Amino acid sequence: MDKNNQLKLVSKYCNSFNLKKIKVDTLLLIIHMLLSDYEKIEIKDNVLNKNLLIDAQEIDFINKSVHDLKNYLESNIVISETLLYIFRNKSLSPTFLKVSKNLEPMRVYYQYLTSIFSNKIKKGSFWIPELLAFSLIHYFKKEHEKSFLSHPLIQNFPTEKFLNIYNKNNIKIKKQLSEEEQVNSWKIKTNLDEMYDLSEYMIEKYLEFNYKINDKRVSKTRMKKKK
Q1: DSSP per residue over 50-100, as a string?
Q2: Residue-wise pLDDT tens digits, 17-31
Q3: Which residues contact 144 (CB under 8 A, 6 or more apart)?
Q4: Chain centroid offset of residue 133 CA
Q5: DSSP 219
Q6: Stated pTM of the model
């Protein structure tokens, strides 16, 4: 992560307040967090092979996709480490205090999305951060017809190719579990299904949620004029 570039991105938010863009970028901030979590997983190849029946070529494609998108996001949006650092230190610097006021909507959106996630993911359960990340992009774009026009790489990112790998393997896993447990495959809910359901739920709730600007707040200048 380039700290200087992150600070430049922060200044852009301060110079041009756009609530719609902040909402989209906060979703991308969460996606960056998920991709970062994936890269932190040790022995990813073994984990994927064991749990998802994915071959080596598909693993290479997943790893490259995650790496490329994560690097793009770090160069184009404010990431969670920067956001949290500014709010932790806002009392130490007049500049950070000013910046934190402009980034307050992002903080609110961030807290809302992370609260949904933490309430839905059970502690100790097996989850798939990269699948959740790409599913969030997919549902936002395809199912709800929203766009990432400010971020062409993400707008044109082939999420379908990525998700097809998991969809194909989800069928294999259900068939395997069906044979082992002697139950119909349609009754089986896999970890992949849970990621799909969670991403859809998160996008639906997020689109319903809006940051409320305090329209009752009056500046000191306006108060003086009234007097």
Answers
A1: HHH---HHHHHHHHHHHHHHHHHHHHHS--HHHHHHHHHTTTT-HHHHHHH
A2: 788 999 999 999 999
A3: 203, 204, 207
A4: 6
A5: -
A6: 0.86
